[in-house]
Amino acid sequence: MVEKHIKHLLYNHDCVIIPDFGGLITRYVPARINPVKHTLVPPSKKIAFNEKLVLNDGLLISTIAYANNSSKEEARQLVVSFVHEVRNRLESEQRFELTDIGVFKYNHEQRLVFEYTEGDNLLEASFGLPEIVVRPIRHEEPAVLRTLIKERQAAEPAPVRKPFKVRLKRAYHVAAGLALTGLVGTALYMLSLQTDYNLSSLNPISLISGDKQVADDNTVTASIPVQHETTLGQAAAADVMEVSEASMVEGTEAWDVTSSTTSGSEGQYAADEFVNEKGEAVEEAAAPAPVTTTVSDKDGRYYIITGGYARMLNAEFSRQEIAEFGHEAKVLEPGKGSRLFKVSVADFATAEEAQAAMNTYRKSFGENIWVYNN
Asked: What residues does the SPOR domain cover (predicted)?
């Protein structure tokens, strides 16, 4: 009887306390989809148990007294008897089932736990809503279309297998084509291994351009006279060289240069000298010495430094940018105890000269430049 009143109270209340035993608490559960059963479950209530809610709030006792038309004392005795029965069943059978609500039992720590049994939907707003079966939609062809497809398949003749001779002839043609392709590829590969043969000569366009290039080369070669060197003896040697150059620009005169034969120490020209119209030797101008842009050793000079870099590549980029403005920029390699490649914009022999030039270079490179003694 008490179980029936507890279930009835759970429909309308969120908490029902069983005096000296615990309280049953309801929780709202929204609608959900079961992907395995393909069902849609309406909203419901889920019940949990809290054994610490033992204080009598009078709800259960008052409901039983009103339903049985009895006094509250008689209703309280019914609840006490019910709790006593539950505890005896738990001690003897280790479980007690509350009909359509859940099961009480002890866990491995001998603590009372409650397992909710999903029976009737206790949510009053979902009363009468069934569980809806939602099956996946499968596209089915209309009956008329299925009939037409079957008739078409029946009308189509079965594929006839070609005779064995026809298939053998086709396989022979395929094998012959593959073999011919392999032979051509092998021949081209063997030709490419020869040092005096170039596969690009098979290109007709390259042949035409090559003939034109050979003709041009012959024309140029024919316009330049060949120099002959004749040895007359070990004691005296006569070098006869005649150079004639065709005039490439209209109005330019041709120069005829003839070297005279001399012996001993008179009039002998060096190999790197030119001869003018009067036969005088003119020394070739010496090539300018290369400009040094990297300083690796100590030289005692004072450099105006614009910045320091951890990598030589970055320092070289900075030096090239400074050199574009007409400055003699240099890169100083790191010395002992340093890892920076320093870039200088100018260098001087004394510190006074470097300090005097600082104001001039600050206008172009800012206030962060400094003097460094290498």
From this structure: 296-374
